[in-house]
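Please, structure for the following, as tokens.
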Amino acid sequence: MPVLNRIASYAEEMKEWRRHLHRHPELSFDCTETAAWISERLEEIGVDEVHEGIAQTGLVAVIRGQGEGPVIGLRADMDALAIAELTGAEHASTVPGKMHACGHDGHVTMLLGAAKYLAETRNFAGSVALIFQPAEEEGGGGEVMVQEGIMDRFAISRVFGIHNAPNVPFGHFQTTPGPLMASVDTAYVKVTGKGGHGATPHECVDPVVALVAMVQAVQTIIPRNVWALDEAVISVTMIHAGSASNIIPEDGTFAATIRCFKPDVRALLKRRFHEIVEGTAAAFGVRAEVEYEWGYPATINDEAQAEFAADVAREISGADAVNAHAPREMGSEDFSYMLEARPGAYLFLGTGPGAGLHHPAYDFNDEASPVGASFFARLVERALPLAAK
């Protein structure tokens, strides 16, 4: 695999970086120590500028090449998850109840490796903006960074990101033009009736039967309202009601995750969800309160940039190891906000066999760091070529 030779020589240092980050996970926007450590590494690497305190703990570093040219944005998320680690690794989390179970420690390491190479070689015309983002897992740090103006402030013209993919063959890249990952919305429903003794249901207004009817009815939205070729998911993931076998409760709740790829489908799902819940509530004589949280939008790759990124990936891993028209994923990503602001692309990088993302036994494969760093570095060199002499 043609990892850039200079980056291959960083492999041991990158492993040390990644394992330090893994030992010291931080959540959401509270990435203070992580950001400070990244800033120190960037100063050692010799980047031209480091701008801190964006989206609370995010930062953007700038590396200028040889001569004038556009600015390419490269993004890595840096927050961890509230999961107790079960890897048993020597470099396991030292913070109880927190771990890097999604590989964001590896994403930071890839971007730092690329930064070191680009700061040394500067074999490009223009600039690179290295985006280290908090709160991907919870809080939408990508949206906040965009709202705080990073695209205009740093004149970013295109933006790219990578996510590791366990159990995809090592070094293989996957992406697709257009929608790659789904939007994600969350609905919480509270149903209130009139409680009482289970022996006298005629004296009650039973919220349980209304809950059951609602859960069944919302499952009809996709097969009966959404075109069969417009992928969408509604999954009811929580139902809570009652406290004893002989009591009809006063109220009950359920929650659902709602995912799709198109804005018009997204609006349809929200409308039909409200209509079905409210109509069912009226039919059963209960009161329903719906809290519908609009979450991350779909992650939609620019078609030209997705093909460009796939071509760079072929240079790193070979044509047979790049799927440029991979199936869409129902997971979600707040890199979507950056792709709404600028053309770009998001890719998955296979890290080989192992525990899946968000699993307590997950651990990032350190051998993948030079591969991801090489991809980022070559992407910049090809996007911002030096003029022929």
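Residues 69 and 75 are 19 Å apart (CA to CA). The domain at 5-180+299-383 is CATH 3.40.630.10 (Aminopeptidase).
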